[in-house]
Amino acid sequence: MQLVVARIGRAHGIKGEVTVEVRTDEPELRLAPGAVLTTDPASTGPLTIETGRVHSGRLLLRFEGVSDRTGAEALRNTLLIADVDPEELPEGEDEYYDHQLIDLDVVTADGTEVGRITEISHLPTQDLFIVECPDGSEVMIPFVEEIVAEIDLEEQKAVITPPPGLIDDRAEIASSREDASGREDVSSREDVSSREES
Question: In terms of DSSP H, where are the helices of 60-166?
Fold first, then answer.
């Protein structure tokens, strides 16, 4: 399987280095010296990484055979593509590549069908599964331990234990009810937000 891991930016200095826009969570693995990457457009590659370093918060790479600014500038906007074994898992426990999660069936712990993961949204605080329901609507499910109980790649499913209101409108109904003192009962909403923070 081929995955885009970076896009080459502008040349840096006069010795062939380029800035890169990293598009992988594992740059130390995918963009290490010695890595051979295919390219888009294909005519500029394959490229072999000779050196890599971080400068002012940006990753700089130099490729074999590119030794001056002119050669580096000619690579601008090229996509770097790595060949990844579809069975390979990230090093961290309970981590997955996006391509392994896309198209998984999402079911609740009691087996109720919720839908299918169509996209992963990476937010600063957490990742979200974008799930397409059988009726064509979409729900967003936070990829947190308290909600996503299990990822089973063999069975191609994600088992969730959603709080009230996440995949239905029970929280809306509960929060609009008023108790005897005239205050709204918002316990369901608080439960959802506390789970999102974890």
Answer: 69-73, 98-101
